Structures are given as structure tokens and as C-alpha cells.
């Protein structure tokens, strides 16, 4: 009986060992297959490590714009700084026409305020002053001169006065009459009104509310602001290039993202200096252009003077360029949803486009707008080296 029990236990142990061996064998095969799959998947991912996936949906959401590279013309650029000025003859000085205390027509009369031709901007009153009201004085003088003139007309007919005396009386009457008319046209019960000589805006106020002013004293400057001047200060070393400059682009300091082109503003070259300023060693060059209403006179600007036309030049929009640690890159579109980061060597720029010296060729398709979104996609697609698949 003991022999039978012993034989049964031995058979059971053998069967259990076989089953355990088969289970371990299956686990080994499964682990081997898992490792194999991960290895080949990794090889597929690393086959083109510099490619960036960016779907059509992402491109549409980011407002991506693609441009195809084609050689073209590019003007040589001299980059400098300057200022926007009011054009000559485009502004007028308003002066006091009478002595007295000035009172502006409300708080609206301030620098930058719009005015219309003939609109009253101030009143000058001489009430309570020792010299009296000049308008009243002129009126009395005019009436006196008028009476003398009419009397002289009768006397000259009877040859009671000489022709010379009559001529003096007539000239005095006309002079006083002109002065009175000038006062009378602007006279109001509480003084003399000052009107705008043209439609524009108040560029500068020279006096304050309640100040005493004299005849001929400047009160304000009114500018039409239709024409402006662009004045660039060019270093002496570029003097030989000035004769070839007839155009320019500029960016105001208050709006550095907007590039204005003189070619689109009916701009023209007015003059350039024949010698540099002794104090600054810069040569002035001046353009005139139409104001679109968005450009502020007196503002400082970054200027791109454009001269000689260069042919067969590869250039890209400045918006296509990115910078990383002193190196510059663009993003190429290889396929509809595949992009690549490409290093380039940039040259001079005109504020809108930048010349590419190397790194691109004709036919390349680049991201012209939406570069930042593609750059983020490139960063997010990088798998850190510390990441492993442990099972």
C-alpha cells in the first residue's frame, strides 16, 4: 500500500513540474515579444528624429501661412534712426490780435484737440485794465476819422484845404478803418475772439488760461497734419550711398510691430545733407509723405533706408525667423503634416523681410506665419532621455 502511495506522489510532482515549466516558457515568449515590439517601435520613432508632426487641424487653428521660396529683388539697406516732423507750410502760428487777458474756449482747447476753420478757440478781454478796451478805442478812432474824412470831402470841393491835406486825411481814415474792421469782425461783448485759421489740431499751446497777452504774441500752433517729414540721421561712413537712396521704411517707437513704407504713403525724397553735423557726425536725409492719421509728429522711429536693388536674392518675412542662443532658424514644410527645423544665416533686413545668406534654396516651403505654434509642437514632441519602458 505504501508503495502505491509513494508512486502516486511522484507522478503528481512530475505533472506539477511540467505545468510550471510550460508557464515560465510562455512568460518568456511574451516578455521577448514585448521587448521586440518596443524595440521596433522605438526604431520607427527615431528614424527621422528632426521631423515635427503638426496636423492640418492644428495648422488651421494656428493660422499657419506657408510661402514657397523663390529668388527675387532685395534693396540694399542702411539701418539708422530718426524722427517724424511736421511738414513746412502744414502748420500755422495763432497770435494775439489785442492786448488783454486770454480765456480759452473750455477745457477742450488743449494739445491734440481738433479745431475747424473759423472756430473760436479763445477770447482776449481788456476789461478792468488801465489802458482800457482796445476794441472800443479803435471804434472811437474810426468814427473820428470817418467824420474828418467826410468833412474834408466838402472842403476840398471848395478848395478850402489843399489836395495834400486831403490825401493825408483819406489815408488816415483808410488805415484806421482797416484796423477797426479787423477788430469788429472778431469783437464780442466781453472782448475779442481768436479763431482757428485752418482746420487741423492744436499742436502746442504757448500760453495758459488767464495770462496777459500782447498784440502779436504767439498763442498756439495749429497743424493740419496732412503731410509729415521723415528725417534720418545717417553715419558719415554711408555718405557715398546717399545718392542712391530714394525710398525708406520705418517703424515708430510706440508701435514697433508696424512697418510703414514711404512707397505706399506717396513719399518722396526732399534733400540730404552735403556735410555732417560737427557735434554729432551724422548726415541728415529728409523725406516727405502723406499722413494716414496713425503717425504721430515728433515721435522717434527706426528707419531702413533703401538703395541699390540686388537681384536673385532669397529673402523671407521676419516673422518666419526664430532665434535660439544666437542661432537663427526657420521651419520647413516637408509634407502636409510634417515640418522640419532648419538653421539659416540671415543678412540685412528692411523691417519687413530679411535676406537669407545660406540654409534655404528655391522651392523650399517655409512657415511664414504661426512659427511659434510649430516651435511649441517641436518642443512637446521631444521625449526626454530619462524616460524608459520598464515592465
Could you provide a short overview of the structure?
By secondary structure, the protein is an alpha+beta fold.
According to CATH, the fold-level topology of the largest domain is OB fold (Dihydrolipoamide Acetyltransferase, E2P)
Shape: elongated
- Give the overall pLDDT as a whole number: 82
Quaternary form:
single chain
User: What is the domain total for the residues?
Assistant: 3
Total number of strands: 24
Class by alpha and beta content: alpha+beta
Low-confidence stretches: 1-9, 14-45, 383-391
* H/E topology pattern: HEHEEEEEEHHEEEEEEEEEEEEEEEEEH
The biggest sheet amounts to: 7 strands, antiparallel
Gyration radius, in Å: 43 Å
The total of helices stands at 5
Name the strands of the widest sheet in spatial order: 15-14-18-3-13-17-16
GO molecular function: transmembrane transporter activity
GO biological process, one term: plasma membrane copper ion transport
InterPro entries: CzcB_C, MFP_Cation_Efflux, RND_pump_MFP
Protein name: Multidrug resistance protein MdtA
Amino acid at each position: 500500500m505504501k508503495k502505491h502511495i509513494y508512486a502516486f506522489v511522484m507522478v503528481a510532482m512530475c505533472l506539477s513540474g511540467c505545468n510550471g515549466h510550460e508557464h515560465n516558457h510562455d512568460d518568456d515568449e511574451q516578455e521577448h515579444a514585448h521587448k521586440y515590439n518596443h524595440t521596433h517601435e522605438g526604431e520607427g520613432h527615431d528614424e527621422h528624429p528632426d521631423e515635427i508632426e503638426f496636423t492640418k487641424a492644428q495648422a488651421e487653428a494656428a493660422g499657419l501661412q506657408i510661402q514657397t521660396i523663390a529668388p527675387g529683388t532685395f534693396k540694399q539697406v542702411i539701418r539708422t534712426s530718426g524722427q517724424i516732423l511736421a511738414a513746412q507750410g502744414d502748420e500755422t502760428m495763432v497770435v494775439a490780435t489785442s492786448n488783454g487777458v486770454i480765456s480759452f474756449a473750455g477745457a477742450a482747447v488743449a494739445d491734440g484737440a481738433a479745431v475747424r476753420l473759423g472756430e473760436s478757440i479763445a477770447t482776449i478781454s481788456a476789461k478792468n485794465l488801465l489802458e482800457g478796451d482796445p476794441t472800443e478805442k479803435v471804434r472811437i478812432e474810426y468814427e473820428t476819422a470817418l467824420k474828418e474824412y467826410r468833412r474834408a470831402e466838402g472842403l476840398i470841393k471848395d478848395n478850402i484845404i489843399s489836395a495834400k491835406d486831403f490825401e493825408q486825411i483819406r489815408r488816415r481814415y483808410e488805415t484806421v478803418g482797416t484796423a477797426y474792421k479787423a477788430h469788429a469782425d472778431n469783437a464780442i461783448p466781453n472782448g475779442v475772439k481768436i479763431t482757428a485759421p485752418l482746420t487741423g489740431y492744436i499742436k502746442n499751446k504757448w500760453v495758459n488760461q488767464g495770462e496777459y497777452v500782447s498784440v502779436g504774441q504767439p498763442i498756439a500752433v495749429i497743424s493740419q497734419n496732412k503731410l509729415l517729414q521723415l528725417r534720418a540721421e545717417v553715419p558719415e561712413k554711408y555718405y557715398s550711398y546717399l545718392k542712391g537712396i530714394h525710398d525708406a521704411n520705418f517703424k515708430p517707437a510706440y508701435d514697433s510691430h508696424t512697418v510703414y513704407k514711404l512707397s505706399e504713403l506717396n513719399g518722396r525724397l526732399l534733400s540730404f545733407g552735403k556735410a555732417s553735423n560737427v557735434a554729432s557726425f551724422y548726415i541728415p536725409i529728409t523725406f516727405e509723405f502723406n499722413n494716414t492719421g496713425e503717425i504721430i509728429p515728433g515721435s522717434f522711429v527706426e528707419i531702413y533706408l533703401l538703395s541699390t536693388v540686388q537681384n536673385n536674392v532669397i529673402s523671407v518675412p521676419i516673422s518666419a525667423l526664430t532665434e535660439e542662443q544666437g542661432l537663427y532658424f526657420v521651419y520647413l514644410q516637408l509634407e502636409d503634416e510634417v515640418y522640419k527645423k532648419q538653421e539659416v544665416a540671415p543678412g540685412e533686413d528692411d523691417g519687413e523681410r530679411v535676406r537669407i545668406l545660406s540654409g534655404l534654396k528655391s522651392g523650399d516651403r517655409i512657415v511664414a506665419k504661426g512659427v511659434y505654434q510649430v516651435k511649441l509642437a517641436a518642443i512637446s514632441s521631444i521625449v526626454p532621455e530619462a524616460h524608459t519602458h520598464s515592465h
